[in-house]
Amino acid sequence: MQRLRFKNNDTMPALGLGTWKSNPNEVYQAVIDAVKTGYRHIDCAPIYGNEAEIGKALSKLINDGTVRREELWITSKLWNNAHAADAVLPALKKTLEDLQLDYLDLFLVHWPVAVKPDVILPEKGSDMLSLDEIPISETWKGMEKCVNEGLAKHIGVSNFSISKLKDLISQATIKPEMNQIELHPFLQQNEMLDYCKDENIFLTAYAPLGSRDRMQAMKGADEPSLLENKVIVDIAIAHGKSPAQVLIKWALQRDTAVIPKSVNAKRIKQNFEAEDFQLTDDAMQRIADLDQHFRLVSGSFWTVGDSPYTLENLWDE
Ligand code: A2P
User: Fold this and answer.
1) pLDDT confidence of residue 217
2) Residue range 83-141, pLDDT digits in tens
3) Angle subtended by helix axes 24-37 and 265-272, to nearest 10
4) How high is the pLDDT of residue 258?
5) pLDDT for 216 beyond 80
6) Complete DSSP assignment for 193-245
7) Structure letter (DSSP) for residue 33
8) Which one of 209, 245, 256 would you pick to mutate in the ligand 1 pocket, going by the greatest count of ligand atoms within 8 A of its CB?
């Protein structure tokens, strides 16, 4: 199993099970199937609305001896309504309670975006708090406390630009060790890849298969399909693999972690078996040529009404 080695020698399995969009009534079985298949890394977040069901599955797998806690790598994230420094630890405690765990392996700031404490998803600009009102450096103090209290082994961020990472690093006591971002052949983010390699920050690729099960409102009418892309399909046929396996292996060969979501036992297994082959240099080059800086998750839900957030200041591009 390919693993990413952290500075303190902890290792994270590069391939994990994604749980964004996994319905609560499907995710229990998906986690059971995944761990029985060999997955040891599960990616979670409270906003996915299914941590309690994941917790039931983890508890069963640990209690019946299928897996030991120390063999698992569990990631979760801080939602945007808990960015105040003193709100971070309570938010983590709630996640740990739902997941039925004593600690997380990795805890991430989900977005560089804050909303008011009583808001989940903003409907208007006044639901938001600007980064001047709650700077990320304040949120990060809360994240560092989680490490100091032993409730999170590693901390990082998600959806951060290079410029926001630089800013955070300049103020952090504990350096972020992960940035989880959208990464796939249509959004390769090579500058980010190089920057993070230099800074010893790992990347996790979300939406690696194109996240076609996103709610309709989040989808563009003319969105290109990764799984049906001709180059990906041709490479899959040439390697005797599925398009999904090509997309997963591409992420692994770029030394990123990758978290394909599935709630289907056959696809969970198929995705896991993406580790068992190698893409040729020629195939990697042909995939490199597919880059078109196309975001599936545009972030436009943070720019409602007179929000202080714009797509420009969110992505810094
Ligand atoms: P399902 O959960 O029914 O398997 P992403 O990881 O990019 O968010 O994509 C998740 C979407 O891709 C889901 O709709 C998921 O459906 C589907 N999916 C997962 N694995 C495969 C696969 N091996 N082949 C085709 N589609 C897949």
Assistant:
1) 73
2) 999 999 999 999 999 999 999 999 999 999 999 999 999 999 999 999 999 999 999 99
3) 40
4) 98
5) no
6) HHHHHHHT-EEEEESTT--TTS-GGGS-TTPPPSTT-HHHHHHHHHHTS-HHH
7) H
8) 209
Alpha carbon of 260 to ligand 1 centroid (Å): 7
Structure tokens at 255: 């030394």
**Using CA positions, which residue lies closest to atom 11 of ligand 1?**
211
Locate the DSSP E strands across 94-189.
104-109, 114-115, 128-129, 152-158, 178-182
Angstrom CA distances, 301 to 110, 161, 190, 217, stand at 14, 17, 25, 10
Residue with tokens 């500058």: 191
| Residue 211 Cα to ligand 1 middle (Å) | 7
Supply the pTM of this predicted model.
0.98
- Residue reference for tokens 């996103």: 214
CA distance 301 to 309: 10
Strand partners, 73: 41
For residues 80 and 112, the answer to whether their CB atoms sit within 8 Å is no
Rg (CA), the chain: 19
Length of the chain: 317
Domains of the chain with bracketed CATH? 10-315 (3.20.20.100)
Q: What is the C-alpha to C-alpha distance for residues 121 and 300, in angstroms, rounded to an integer? A: 12
Mutate to test the pocket of ligand 1, among 212, 295, 296 (most ligand atoms within 8 A of CB): 212
Compute the distance between CA of residue 248 and CA of residue 39 in angstroms, rounded to an integer: 14
